[in-house]
Amino acid sequence: MIEIKNVTKSFSSRRTIDHLNLTIPHGKIVGFLGPNGAGKSTTIKMMTGILPIDEGTITLNGYDIEKQPMEAKKTFGLVPDHPDMFLRLKGMEYLNFIGDIFNIPSDIRKERIERVTKQFSIYTALNDYIQTYSHGMRQKIIVTGVLLHDPPIWILDEPLTGLDPKSSYLLKEMLREHAEKGNTVFFSSHGLEVVEQLVDEVAIINHGKLLFYGTLQELREQNPSNDSLEEVFLEMTNDA
Ligand SMILES: Nc1ncnc2c1ncn2[C@@H]1O[C@H](COP(=O)(O)OP(=O)(O)OP(=O)(O)O)[C@@H](O)[C@H]1O
């Protein structure tokens, strides 16, 4: 479970996140929607301890990300929007680094790395430098790292951008399976079709404020005059 309580964040006195309250429960896939600049990545960066919070608190499975960062960080895996990290490591070195940090026994490590990287078709690239990987391959190596330590909470910032259809399908299956086991999956997306296929609930923000949180069914019931999720979304986030 992720609990965001009254969180505010400003950049150079411009308020980007404005008293945001949101609880992401166990056992659900929650999609995080909002137009460009709405504050999705900023929220995810505060959730994961990358950016400090100005006001309010964020807890992950009960651990405060600012007061108990070590405990909180053990409970989640993050797939960031720009997967351009550890470029000077080879794929296998990166995965072993993750395995060492999270004390994953070598037999489990070997089995998970082999299984997931073969599914993602990056097994044969594990001895290449991440620098040489495409955007999609970089995403896949980070997702493999998350699956390697298998934390209860998965947080993903636009995870499907740049993935080929097979990998995108596979990742969606993995997200569903993770939530079905009672875990928490929270991902931001601009792909409304993906959201419609995958999520149990959606959170919609604009200008750092929560506009809606609930199921797609509830969203439709609240907006009966619009036929599609696209129309609901456009009307809800229309600034004109
Ligand atoms: N480090 C920063 N310094 C100054 N302003 C920032 C910083 N990070 C984000 N912002 C601003 O905060 C606002 C929200 O940005 P954010 O990246 O959270 O939006 P987003 O919803 O993820 O957008 P997108 O869908 O385009 O990725 C934007 O106006 C952005 O310019």
Automatic annotation (TrEMBL):
Pfam families for this protein: ABC_tran
Gene3D superfamilies: P-loop containing nucleotide triphosphate hydrolases
Recorded superkingdom: Bacteria
Keyword Zinc-finger: no
InterPro entries: AAA+_ATPase (IPR003593), ABC_transporter-like_ATP-bd (IPR003439), ABC_Transporter_VariousFunc (IPR051782), P-loop_NTPase (IPR027417)
MF (Gene Ontology): ATP binding; ATP hydrolysis activity
Keyword Transport: yes
Protein keywords: ATP-binding, Nucleotide-binding, Transport
Residue span(s) of domain ABC transporter: 2-232
Cleavable signal peptide: none
Name of the protein: ABC transporter ATP-binding protein
Lineage: Bacteria, Bacillati, Bacillota, Bacilli, Bacillales
